[in-house]
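re: ur question from earlier - yeah i can do the single chain one, its not a big deal. heres the input i used so u can compare w yours
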Amino acid sequence: MSDKVSRRQFAKVAGLSAAGIASPLEIADAKPAAAPRSAGGFPAGFLWGTATSSYQVEGAVEEDGRGASIWDRFVRIPGKIEDGTNGDRAAEHYHRYKDDIALIKELGCKAYRFSVAWPRVFPDGDGKPNPKGLDFYNRLIDELLKNGIDPWLTLYHWDLPQSLQDRFGGWRSTETCKIFGDYAAYVAEHLTDRVKNVFTLNESGRFVYFGYGIGIDAPGLTLPQVDVNQVRHNSALAHGLAVQAVRAHGRRGTRVGPAENIDACIPAIDTPENVRAAEIALRELNAGYLNVIMTGRYTDAFLKYAGRDAPKYTDAN
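and the output i got, formated as tokens:
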């Protein structure tokens, strides 16, 4: 943080552009009838919140048993980060979370979405868990609740344990998907006594293409399209395994879903034909991920377009 801008000043500026939390979790429960709206124009019960991701804010990358993530290695590849910065220190949220929560409360936000750093809880991705890593999130959640702020938890916001990248090729392998399910089960078992809403993977559409297709995000690979499509399929599989794990090991009533940046389509002219065309485009542009999650299959149009590059899978995965 620059000496010219205090943590408090930055929070106030950020608060001016704060967005409400909306997700597939809420959309699934939505009713077709128009919801009653507040004087400000937002639906009754609309939840205002703020959000972060672990690597962007926590810092403390070598403290209390945290393992390395793919971003720890990626930021040190020459030319990948324009100004050469990294997340070693970041916003020091790991040590200053109480101050940050006080700022969230001062902004008037009633929800905070954060991500659990997978390598902080499981330094190698799997194997023996790190109790000090889990303890941080226990303290964070307790502090949020003490201040009247609802915790929203994301299981994966891109900081894959480097060990899984080295051993299995990261999301190129279904082994990583299975391990993600085990990690999701562990987090759900220990944290959903206080966390009611869990996101599985954040923006698969971003980390798959940018990380494995064009190499501008971690792990920085530029794979052929057939491999990118397989990684995307594996991310959908990982989501499904995590949902099953949260439902099996989490507190009854825990809501779980993806946090996806979908391609949205609207008709330029409001006619039945254009509306229908926009509906089809919306489905097909998201056919490689969300449609698979929601229907259990790829659309015919997606498979035709992918051709020989279509992902390979079985009934099991």
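The CA atoms of residues 11 and 103 lie 7 Å apart. not sure if urs matches, ping me
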